[in-house]
């Protein structure tokens, strides 16, 4: 797991976990679109465990779809309520024994700011620090410099090779981040830059640049991210557009993406839908979907948490239409009569929605059966049409 994802999980553990007398469990399941099958497949999943104070203490990572298997476990330890170490524990395929093969160690300043995050890996039974992420702060206690160092086997020491330099607006927002690398001659050179635009404390736009040191010697635009927020000031959409030097404008092409974030009634993550723009059909196609589940029970099995799909059909009896609400994407809905003959079939669904309405005004008054096909299986319900 990369350090960016770790930091994201640390932050979201306080945002989306809940405190109580028993530890809370949340899980996320990634789903990707298999273009060869024209079908959604479930990818990797994970269970996140929290302690009674809301701190993330364990992640159980799974691979597989129908019968997910544990691939590795990440454990978090704390010291004085601050994250201290993160361990990645894998199972040996030959001996089936579990062993820690890497861990990250956090250090802090006197102001409890993160000073460094060092990664250690076991080599020949010895722990070796293979990379380090270090932070420096300005007089206002804000990050001013982020430095990445990697282990150099020739000199047997950590060598700094990447930097991020932060500057802030008058309102204290991160306005510019400049990325640098150390070249073969030992000089720091610019490689990229992020320039952000804020409004009322929310980041509305972010522009990305690369430094053209061979030709013009200036910053050249590459892409723009536009952010949209919901009424609770939570990020709901991210639109990514690339810069065209032919038209000198941001364009929507096959590399552009639309990321939609949906929250539940408690403002917790519910779905993250990643769409890629298809130039052939001139529209966004769903490419990746992550579902988030929350559970306050130590008795619920891992398999049930990952495979649980809730289907609700209403009203029933129905008149001219009915609605199906599902916690997971629906691929197909079939309506059959009492003999089992399929008389209606629906297979076009928008993944941005979790409620779907169906017109049955052309069906006569009698008993029918609905078959709902999701990624986890098939669900059947009796439907009564009454007029």
Fold topology:
Elements: H1 3-16, E1 25-34, E2 39-50, E3 56-63, E4 69-79, E5 82-91, E6 98-108, E7 114-123, E8 126-137, E9 143-152, E10 157-168, E11 174-182, E12 188-199, E13 202-212, E14 218-229, E15 235-244, E16 249-251, E17 257-263, E18 269-278, E19 283-295, H2 302-307, E20 311-314, E21 321-326, E22 330-336, E23 342-346, E24 355-359, E25 367-374, E26 377-384
Antiparallel strand pairs: 1-2, 1-19, 2-3, 3-4, 4-5, 5-6, 6-7, 7-8, 8-9, 9-10, 10-11, 11-12, 12-13, 13-14, 14-15, 15-16, 15-17, 17-18, 18-19, 20-21, 21-24, 22-23, 22-25, 25-26
The proportion of residues in beta strands is over 45%
Domains (count): 3
Helix content: under 10%
What is the H-and-E element order?
Answer: HEEEEEEEEEEEEEEEEEEEHEEEEEEE
- CATH class of the largest domain, named Mainly Beta
CATH architect. name of the largest domain: Beta Barrel
Radius of gyration (Å): 25 Å
């Amino acid at each position: 797991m990369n350090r960016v994802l770790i930091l994201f999980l640390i932050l979201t553990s306080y945002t989306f976990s809940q405190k109580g007398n028993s530890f809370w469990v949340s899980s996320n399941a990634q789903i990707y679109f298999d273009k060869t099958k024209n079908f959604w497949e479930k990818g990797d999943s994970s269970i996140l465990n929290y302690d009674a104070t809301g701190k993330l203490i364990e992640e159980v990572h799974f691979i597989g779809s129908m019968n997910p298997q544990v691939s590795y476990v990440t454990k978090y330890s704390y010291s004085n309520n601050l994250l201290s170490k993160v361990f990645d524990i894998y199972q040996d395929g030959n001996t089936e024994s579990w062993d820690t093969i890497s861990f990250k160690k956090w250090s802090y300043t006197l102001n409890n700011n993160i000073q460094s995050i060092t990664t250690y890996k076991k080599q020949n039974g010895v722990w070796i620090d293979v990379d380090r992420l270090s932070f420096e702060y300005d007089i206002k206690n804000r990050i001013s410099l982020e430095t990445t160092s990697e282990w150099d086997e020739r000199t047997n020491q950590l060598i700094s090779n990447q930097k991020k330099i932060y500057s802030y607006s008058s309102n204290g927002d991160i306005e510019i981040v400049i990325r640098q690398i150390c070249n073969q001659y030992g000089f720091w050179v610019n490689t990229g830059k992020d320039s952000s635009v804020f409004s009322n404390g929310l980041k509305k736009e972010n522009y990305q640049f690369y430094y053209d040191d061979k030709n013009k010697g200036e910053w050249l635009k590459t892409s723009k991210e536009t952010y949209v927020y919901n009424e609770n000031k939570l990020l709901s959409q991210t639109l990514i557009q690339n810069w065209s030097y032919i038209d000198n404008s941001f364009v929507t092409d096959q590399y552009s993406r639309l990321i939609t974030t949906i929250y539940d009634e408690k403002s917790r993550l519910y779905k993250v839908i990643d769409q890629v723009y298809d130039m052939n059909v001139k529209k966004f196609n769903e490419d990746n979907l992550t579902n988030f589940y929350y559970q306050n029970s130590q008795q619920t099995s891992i398999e049930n948490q990952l495979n649980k799909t809730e289907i609700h059909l209403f009203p029933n009896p129905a008149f001219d239409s009915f609605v199906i609400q599902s916690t997971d994407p629906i691929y197909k809905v079939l309506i059959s009569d009492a003999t089992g003959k399929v008389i209606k079939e629906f297979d076009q669904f928008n993944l941005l929605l979790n409620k779907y309405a169906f017109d049955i005004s052309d069906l006569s008054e009698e008993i029918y059966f609905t078959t709902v096909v999701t990624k986890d299986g098939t669900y059947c319900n009796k439907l009564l049409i009454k007029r």
